[in-house]
Design goal:
It catalyses: shikimate + ATP = 3-phosphoshikimate + ADP + H(+). Catalyzes the specific phosphorylation of the 3-hydroxyl group of shikimic acid using ATP as a cosubstrate. Pfam families: SKI. It is found in: Cytoplasm. Substrate binds at residues 34, 58, 80, 136. By secondary structure, the protein is of the alpha/beta class. The chain has one domain (5-163): Rossmann fold. The chain contains 8 helices and 5 strands. The protein has helices at residues 15-26, 33-41, 45-52, 54-71, 86-91, 104-111, 125-143, 155-163; strands spanning 5-8, 30-32, 75-77, 97-101, 146-149. A 5-stranded parallel beta sheet has the order 2-3-1-4-5, sandwiched between helices. The chain is globular, with a radius of gyration of 16 Å. It starts with a strand and ends in a 9-residue tail after the last helix. 35% of the residues are buried. Bound molecules: adenosine-5'-triphosphate, (3R,4S,5R)-3,4,5-trihydroxycyclohex-1-ENE-1-carboxylic acid (SKM) and magnesium ion. Adenosine-5'-triphosphate binds next to helix 1 and helix 8.
Amino acid sequence: MSPRFVVLGPPGAGKTTVGRLLAERLDVAFRDTDDDIVATAGKPISDVFTDDGEPAFRAMEEHAVAEGLNTHDGVLALGGGAVLSATTRGRLAGHTVVFLNVGMAEGVRRTGMSSARPLLAGVNPRATFKSLLDARLPLYREVATIEVTTDDLTPEQVVDAVLRPTGPAQGT
Ligand SMILES: Nc1ncnc2c1ncn2[C@@H]1O[C@H](COP(=O)(O)OP(=O)(O)OP(=O)(O)O)[C@@H](O)[C@H]1O
Ligand SMILES: O=C(O)C1=C[C@@H](O)[C@@H](O)[C@H](O)C1
Ligand SMILES: [Mg+2]
């Protein structure tokens, strides 16, 4: 069993929003590893970061992603930092992986100052978002088989782009 699409990208790229729409369009189930972690931990992700620390969160995330890849056959959205794990990047080989990209300005606009995103809850979310993008862009691209830049697209248009055939133009 393997997910039809694995969706990843930075916070605010639309993994949850677009992932859900994509699953609806394909009439398959949607699963988000962030939700799996919340269910397992029995508390919000911000509390996992505060109480247990980021390394503990990353270990739970590695486990949740492996479980999703092995047991889910619909659309699987990963947390924004899941690609930081080399083990996870290795496990993504052979899967159809969609990288939803978003630039700093739009990413910060979409995520706002939400404390639900502990890594962006500091004093300078723009700088934090930029350094996060700089560090992760090569990792997202290492595992992605499809990349869509979402800044100027609605979630529906992003789904269209994911499903658009990429081969040579048909007919004349
Ligand atoms: N293409 C888009 N155009 C405009 N707004 C969008 C788009 N995609 C997502 N959004 C909005 O941006 C916000 C963040 O989207 P979403 O929660 O899906 O991102 P995410 O990638 O799952 O983030 P996280 O890594 O924090 O889970 C939501 O308010 C959502 O409605
Ligand atoms: O970008 C990140 O590192 C994170 C993104 C979210 O999806 C959550 O997985 C968590 O807030 C960490
Ligand atoms: Mg999400």
